[in-house]
């Protein structure tokens, strides 16, 4: 049985509401990662059509990688690094000991700041989803915020995203048919 359209509309509206709260944090709190002015709905919710259940909503929280450079680990073809090229790089507040962005520090920062949201009931890192999972009192469902750094080629075309790999580094995802912009 499919969910009623009213519940689905409320769910999508809740994503917008949450993102507005996150945007407010991003511009008003020093240390919150710099984000884009939109997000991507991710996973099955990004596809038109009926939704049978709603336990969680996934969104890619797009982080600015300005001032960083992508490097592939020479030890593991699935591991990426973000080199901090300038002291004022958008993710320079989260360095590891070698001048790269530590994704664990980014996650910890998001958890810290998102826990201050008025309606926050619980916030934690979901290792399986590579996401910060947020439960708000106002909704039956939870939100998976997946921090993602967009990577463009030299022509300015988006080619993939880097998401935390839960070990301090980054992993690559492509989402051509898996997301829609909001």
End-to-end distance: 27 Å
- Overall pLDDT confidence: 88
Rg computed from alpha carbons, rounded to a whole number of angstroms: 16 Å
**How much helicity do the residues have?**
10-25%
Number of strands: 10
The succession of helices and strands, N to C, reads HEEEEHEEEEEE
Number of helices: 2
**Sheet having the most strands:** 8 strands, mixed
User: By helix and strand content, what is the structural category?
Assistant: alpha+beta
The stretches of 5 or more residues where confidence is low (pLDDT under 50) are: none
Strand residues, percent: 35-45%
Shape designation: globular
Tell me about this structure.
This protein has 2 helices and 10 strands. A hairpin with a 5-residue loop joins strand 6 and strand 7. The radius of gyration is 16 Å and the shape is globular. 20% of the residues lie in helices and 35% in strands.
């Amino acid at each position: 049985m499919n969910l009623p359209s009213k519940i689905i509309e409320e769910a999508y509206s809740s994503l917008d509401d949450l993102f507005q709260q996150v945007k407010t944090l991003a511009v008003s709190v020093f240390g919150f990662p710099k984000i884009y002015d939109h997000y991507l709905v991710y996973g099955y919710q990004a596809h038109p059509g009926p939704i049978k259940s709603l336990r969680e909503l996934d969104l890619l929280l797009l982080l600015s990688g300005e001032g960083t450079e992508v490097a592939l680990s020479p030890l593991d073809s699935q591991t990426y690094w973000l080199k901090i090229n300038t002291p004022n790089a958008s993710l320079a507040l989260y360095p590891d000991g070698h001048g790269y962005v530590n994704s664990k520090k980014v996650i910890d920062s998001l958890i810290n700041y998102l826990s201050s949201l008025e309606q926050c009931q619980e916030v934690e890192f979901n290792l399986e989803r590579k996401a910060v999972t947020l439960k708000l009192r106002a909704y039956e469902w939870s939100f998976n915020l997946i921090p993602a750094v967009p990577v463009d080629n030299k022509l300015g075309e988006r080619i993939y995203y880097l998401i935390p790999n839960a070990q301090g580094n980054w992993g690559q995802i492509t989402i051509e048919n898996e997301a829609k912009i909001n």
